[in-house]
């Protein structure tokens, strides 16, 4: 989905957010806009036109009240009776404004009209229409989710509502058929399938078994497969950086009690044990925990490492242990937060980490930049327009609705990256993982070009003290062929040469922690996280110095807590006329 | 998958270049996906094409359920609204606008030909909807086996687990070995002649025939060592005028099916002109029919026979 909002809607971010360093990305609770109110409250106090007459009122409310009293048309009632979603409601308003139907014609709609699905009516018929920008009374749907719509007043209304409900029932029945076959094939539960079949066959039955949604079991299942562990362990940038941090900080790990959250095959626990940990608790909820147990034993470290199978929310530590000194975890997902294992890590921190204990990694920074991924664009979008002479471009549509995880080269980045989220693991809370951050990107394109995407990636930092890294810390970029492990580990049979620490080693006592880090950005050797690319329906026409400013919003999806909803608002400032108003474009994405 | 030019191009040649077979015929596209094969058939002159979006023999993921809507848009955008009808649902349950069809077209093949394939559904469609002298596109599939030299990659993929950053991970190695690897192999890695292990004629094959045990005999083409067996398949449109065919073997152009590699625990010594003999058996897993159990027993000259059980299992 993308929407264009008129220039007047775009609010210039507060002055300090113009800071091109991106340091001040709305971390403060006060400043942070919540997800729901990003269309400003003042919106419904803007002049609004009646739906049926050429009369303008001082506010949305007044216009709606007028339409109701004069034309017996209640937009809210129609929206709820036809069970319209946000986009259908937008289409309805635009349709009325464009086609000028009579109020009774609108009231007679049954919800299956073609325009409810037409993209044409997503375009505002009226420039800067405040009716499209207000959130349709969210408070109602929150509190009254179970409440029935008010009883129909006459037979016609009742008939229409029955028709609407019948359509919904048909849809639900169809969904159930899919779901049934999905369940039976996927889980191979013949018995359950039969049970579901019976319950649909006996449609008069009031009882329909609806399986509870379980976002977790699939996730834990797929991690039990060994291939993914091979992929992750073979990600040298990832594993070697963890190894480097753990093995080069024996003073931190010696005699420490360590917890490894989501231990997988246990590699981080093994590193910790090698680095001198007194005791390591390796936690994993998937089947791989059994393999981890075996591996620990094979390596004769079972006197130090204890593998505990279970979710970190449910487990108990052995007697005598209440707290740990260090929590290590490799929890990062695509776009950093996809799959959200971070919640479990934070839970473990709050429950088990002693005060002043160390989180490893201690900090992640989400970075955002302009990106000209031309090849990727051709592959994912251009490709479909001509397949053996046929036009299949309908297949490309979802590319604009879902983030694309892929590697883009360093040369594709067309701005300095800016920080959109700084997660300090020492104190961040789950709630703060839904966030919005303003950004200002300055194009470095050498010639005039169309920019088709933004790129998002993250940098990960470890400190020997668990403190935040100093603001001027640069992330360490692993480049192709770098002997990243040479400092700490004998690679390829080469004996480990103890040597003087490199000059990059900060001097003790200067108040700077020792930092180990890696980047998943385009400038680094690719990792299994790759980068996350957001394709734009409306490309940005940019030259050197073109400023793109906007807002990056990210939150857990309501449908599946391991998925993310991302919303990007942006507008382009013409370098020739920086003060001229320009429209803001909003595009929504799923990360999954 | 449309990016697989060998696959899509072969279907196009088989269909579009044979209008004499398609003219005024009723065509059923089993598992129509984006509708591309249906459009080929329409272009070849079919009277009417019915595309069935098969819900999930194996892939009922949520985002696939709207592919039919996209396919409908595509069909409309290309001007075939009146010639192509798209239907979604299970073949056993959907109602089709015609009782019998002249031609069934389908792209049903999976990795190792049979893994997560829709062949069962195609056979069902054949028995229920195909006219007695009807045609099936494609109508013949053949599977082949050879042995390959692959020490470097085996080290990377399998022996990797012997030493992971200095730790012993060999218990993972055993699982890794039992999971065939879908990958592309260069022709020069092949150290024996290929051996045909299974011939499937879609006009006559029965579902039971897809559980099988077959003997093989591989003759060495040079003195070398083998680290794995390699399987692939060829597809033939036997009813077409020029007998269109394509191969997914190591000698042929890349396809998304690649080849399937079965690593052996031990290295096999291969001598020119000498034989490695054995048996390959293939069956859907009893507990989870989506998975495929494959066993290979082999005997190189002068060596005792060995048997290894493999499993191609679901992984997303």
From TrEMBL, chain A:
Protein name according to UniProt: type I protein arginine methyltransferase
Entry's Gene Ontology molecular function annotations: histone methyltransferase activity; protein-arginine omega-N asymmetric methyltransferase activity; zinc ion binding
Domain Methyltransferase: 258-357
Catalytic activity: L-arginyl-[protein] + 2 S-adenosyl-L-methionine = N(omega),N(omega)-dimethyl-L-arginyl-[protein] + 2 S-adenosyl-L-homocysteine + 2 H(+); L-arginyl-[protein] + S-adenosyl-L-methionine = N(omega)-methyl-L-arginyl-[protein] + S-adenosyl-L-homocysteine + H(+)
Intracellular or extracellular location(s): Cytoplasm, Cytosol
Protein arginine N-methyltransferase 3-like C2H2 zinc finger domain boundaries: 79-124
Region (Disordered): 1-44, 127-156, 491-524
PANTHER family, alphabetized: PROTEIN ARGININE N-METHYLTRANSFERASE, PROTEIN ARGININE N-METHYLTRANSFERASE 3
One cellular component term from this protein's GO annotations in UniProt: cytosol
SUPFAM superfamilies, alphabetized: beta-beta-alpha zinc fingers (SSF57667), S-adenosyl-L-methionine-dependent methyltransferases (SSF53335)
UniProt-listed Pfam families: ANM3_C2H2_Zf, Methyltransf_25, PRMT_C
Boundaries of every Protein arginine N-methyltransferase domain copy: 365-468, 514-574
Automatic annotation (TrEMBL), chain B:
Domain (Methyltransferase): residue spans on this chain: 27-134
A single BP term in Gene Ontology: methylation
InterPro entries documented for this protein: Arg_MeTrfase (IPR025799), Methyltransf_25 (IPR041698), PRMT_dom (IPR055135), SAM-dependent_MTases_sf (IPR029063)
Reactions performed catalytically: L-arginyl-[protein] + S-adenosyl-L-methionine = N(omega)-methyl-L-arginyl-[protein] + S-adenosyl-L-homocysteine + H(+)
A GO CC term assigned to this protein in UniProt: nucleus
Gene Ontology terms, MF aspect: histone methyltransferase activity; protein-arginine omega-N asymmetric methyltransferase activity
Alphabetic keyword roster: Methyltransferase, S-adenosyl-L-methionine, Transferase
EC number: 2.1.1.319
Domain (Protein arginine N-methyltransferase) ranges: 140-302
Pfam families on file: Methyltransf_25, PRMT_C
Name by which UniProt lists this protein: type I protein arginine methyltransferase
Organism, scientific name: Trametes pubescens
Organism lineage string: Eukaryota, Fungi, Dikarya, Basidiomycota, Agaricomycotina
């Amino acid at each position: 989905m993308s929407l264009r909002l008129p220039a007047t809607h775009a609010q210039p971010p507060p002055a300090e957010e113009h800071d091109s360093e991106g340091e001040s990305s709305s971390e403060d609770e006060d400043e942070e806009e919540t997800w729901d109110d990003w269309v400003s409250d003042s919106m419904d106090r803007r002049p609004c036109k009646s739906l049926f007459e050429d009369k303008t009122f001082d506010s949305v409310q007044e216009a709606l009240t007028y339409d109701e009293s004069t034309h017996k048309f209640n937009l809210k009632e129609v929206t709820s009776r036809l069970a319209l979603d946000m986009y259908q409601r937008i289409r309805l308003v635009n349709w009325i404004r464009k086609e000028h139907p009579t109020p009774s014609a609108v009231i007679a709609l049954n919800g299956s009209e073609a325009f409810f699905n037409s993209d044409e009516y997503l375009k505002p018929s009226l420039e800067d229409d405040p009716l499209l920008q207000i959130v349709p009374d969210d408070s109602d749907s929150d509190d009254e989710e179970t409440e029935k719509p008010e009883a129909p007043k006459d037979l016609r209304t009742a008939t229409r509502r029955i028709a609407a409900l019948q359509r919904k029932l048909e849809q639900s029945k169809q969904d159930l058929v899919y779901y049934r076959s999905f369940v039976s094939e996927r889980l191979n539960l013949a018995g359950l399938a039969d049970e579901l079949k019976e319950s649909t066959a006996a449609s008069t039955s009031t009882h329909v078994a609806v399986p509870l949604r379980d976002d977790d079991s699939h996730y834990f299942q797929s991690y039990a497969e060994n291939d993914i562990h091979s992929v992750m362990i073979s990600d040298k940038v990832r594993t070697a950086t963890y190894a480097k941090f753990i093995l080069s900080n024996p003073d931190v790990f010696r005699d420490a009690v360590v917890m490894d959250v989501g231990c997988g095959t246990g590699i981080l626990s093994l590193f910790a044990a090698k680095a001198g940990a007194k005791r390591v608790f390796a936690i994993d909820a998937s089947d791989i925990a059994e393999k981890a147990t075996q591996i620990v034993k094979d390596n004769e470290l079972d006197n130090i490492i204890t593998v505990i199978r279970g979710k970190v929310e449910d487990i108990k530590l052995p007697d005598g242990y209440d707290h740990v000194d260090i929590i290590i975890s490799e929890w990062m997902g695509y776009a950093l937060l996809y799959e959200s294992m971070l919640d479990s890590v934070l839970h473990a921190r709050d429950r088990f980490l002693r005060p002043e204990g160390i989180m490893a990694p201690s900090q992640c920074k989400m970075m955002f930049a302009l990106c000209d991924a031309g090849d990727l664009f051709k592959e994912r979008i251009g490709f479909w327009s001509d397949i053996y002479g046929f036009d299949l471009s309908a297949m490309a549509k979802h590319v604009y609705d879902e983030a694309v995880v892929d590697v883009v080269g360093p040369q594709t980045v067309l701005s300095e990256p800016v920080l959109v989220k700084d997660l300090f693991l020492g104190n961040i809370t789950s709630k703060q993982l839904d966030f919005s951050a303003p950004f200002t990107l300055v194009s470095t394109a050498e010639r005039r070009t169309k920019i088709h995407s933004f790129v998002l990636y993250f940098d990960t930092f470890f400190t020997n003290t668990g403190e935040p890294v100093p603001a001027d810390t640069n992330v360490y970029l692993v480049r192709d062929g770098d002997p990243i492990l040479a400092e700490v580990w004998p690679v390829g049979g080469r004996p480990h040469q103890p040597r003087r620490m490199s000059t990059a080693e900060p001097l003790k006592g200067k108040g700077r922690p020792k930092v180990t880090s890696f980047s998943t950005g385009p400038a680094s050797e690719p990792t299994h996280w790759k980068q996350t690319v957001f394709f734009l329906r409306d490309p940005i026409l940019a030259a050197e110095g073109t400023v793109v400013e906007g807002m990056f919003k990210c939150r857990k999806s309501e449908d599946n807590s391991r998925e993310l909803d991302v919303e990007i608002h942006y507008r382009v400032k013409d370098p020739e006329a920086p003060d001229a108003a320009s429209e803001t474009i909003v595009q929504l994405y799923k990360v999954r | 998958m449309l990016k697989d030019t060998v696959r899509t191009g072969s279907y196009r040649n088989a269909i579009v270049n044979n209008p004499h077979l398609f003219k005024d015929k009723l065509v059923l596209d089993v598992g129509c996906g984006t509708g591309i094969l249906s459009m080929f058939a329409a272009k070849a002159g079919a009277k009417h094409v019915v595309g069935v979006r098969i819900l999930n023999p194996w892939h009922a993921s949520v985002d696939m359920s709207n592919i039919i809507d996209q396919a409908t848009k595509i069909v409309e955008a290309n001007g075939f609204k009146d010639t192509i009808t798209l239907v979604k649902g299970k073949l056993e349950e959907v109602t089709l606008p015609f009782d019998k069809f002249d031609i069934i077209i389908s792209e049903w093949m999976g990795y190792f030909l049979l893994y997560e394939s829709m062949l069962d559904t195609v056979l069902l469609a054949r028995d229920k909807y195909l006219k007695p002298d009807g045609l099936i596109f494609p109508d013949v599939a053949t599977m082949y086996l050879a042995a390959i030299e692959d020490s470097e990659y085996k080290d990377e993929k399998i022996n990797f687990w012997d030493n992971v950053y200095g730790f012993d991970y060999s218990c993972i190695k055993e699982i890794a070995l039992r999971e065939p690897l879908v990958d592309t192999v260069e022709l020069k890695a092949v150290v024996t002649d290929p051996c045909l292990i299974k011939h499937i004629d879609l006009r006559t094959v029965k579902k039971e025939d897809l559980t099988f045990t077959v003997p093989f005999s591989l003759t060495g083409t040079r003195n070398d060592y083998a680290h794995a067996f390699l399987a692939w398949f060829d597809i033939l449109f036997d009813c077409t005028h020029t007998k269109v065919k394509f191969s997914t073997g190591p000698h042929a152009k890349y396809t998304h099916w690649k080849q399937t590699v079965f690593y052996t625990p031990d290295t096999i010594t291969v001598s020119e002109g000498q034989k490695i003999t054995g048996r390959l058996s293939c069956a859907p897993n009893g507990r989870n029919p989506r998975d495929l159990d494959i066993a290979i027993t082999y005997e190189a000259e002068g060596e005792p026979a060995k048997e290894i059980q493999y499993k191609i299992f679901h992984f997303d």
